[in-house]
Amino acid sequence: MPKTNSASKPVRSFRISPEGVSQLRAMASVMGRSESDVIEVALDRMYREEIRYNRVLRESARPEAQYEIVKEMKEKMKFIGMFLKLIGSVIKIAVILAICSSFLFVAYKGNQPMQVPQAPKGMTYFNFIADRIDAAKTVEAVPLRVGVQPENKSP
After folding, report:
1. Considering its fold, how many domains does the chain have in total?
2. Whether 4 contacts 11, CB under 8 Å
3. CA-to-CA distance for 92 and 88, rounded, in angstroms?
4. 11 close to 5: Cβ distance less than 8 angstroms
5. Please, what sign has the CA dihedral across residues 83, 85, 86, 90?
6. Rounded CA gap, 35 and 124, in Å?
7. Is 115 within the bounds of a domain?
8. Which range marks the domain in which residue 138 is found?
9. How far, in Å, CA of 125 to CA of 113, rounded?
10. d(CA 61, CA 93)
11. Is the pTM above the cut of 0.90?
């Protein structure tokens, strides 16, 4: 049967460090109260402080619960992640389409006859480029010497 101070209060025992016991005894002698009254006053003040600053006791009984992400926040983060993935995939598809459409445009326009007045009638851009490459190969085949006058072979 637990010990009681009065008929309505059961007595509980707690493990307190020797330093805590000496502080409890000192506070009891200074205040002129019993050790259990000092503990009650200290707990009451601590409880009021927690309530005043909306800390642990108001929200939940577990202090670690204050640092847990609630289910709604997890759902919001999941939604934001999905939204960012969607934006990334849209951008990726837009870049791929831009590159492919550029290639298709060049392929289409390169096979159309050029509208430049200096170009021969019906010549396409790809024909023009092939002609220029052939001309560059012809020039490379002829040996050139810098600063040397061509020999005059007249009889």
Report:
1. 2
2. yes
3. 6
4. yes
5. positive
6. 104
7. yes
8. 111-142
9. 7
10. 50
11. no
Which of residues 67, 92, 124 is at a domain's end?
67
Give the mean model confidence (pLDDT) for residues 26-42.
89
CB-CB contact of 43 with 54 (8 Å): no
More confident residue, 28 or 63: 28
**pLDDT tens readout for residues 94-130:** 999 999 999 999 999 989 998 888 888 889 989 999 9
Domain annotation covers residue 94: no
Give the 3-state secondary structure percentages of the chain, helix then strand then coil, rounded to 5. Answer: 65, 5, 35
The structure tokens 């409890």 sit at 24
CA–CA separation, 84 and 98 (whole Å): 21
Residue with tokens 């759902």: 75
3-class SS of residue 9: coil
In a domain, 119, yes or no: yes
Is the Cβ–Cβ distance between 78 and 71 less than 8 Å? no
16 Cβ contact partners less than 8 Å away, ≥ 6 residues apart: 24
Residue that terminates a domain, selected from 50, 67, 84? 67
Rounded CA separation 47/54 (Å): 11
Question: Which amino acid makes up residue 126?
Answer: F
Whether 136 maps to a domain, the answer reads: yes
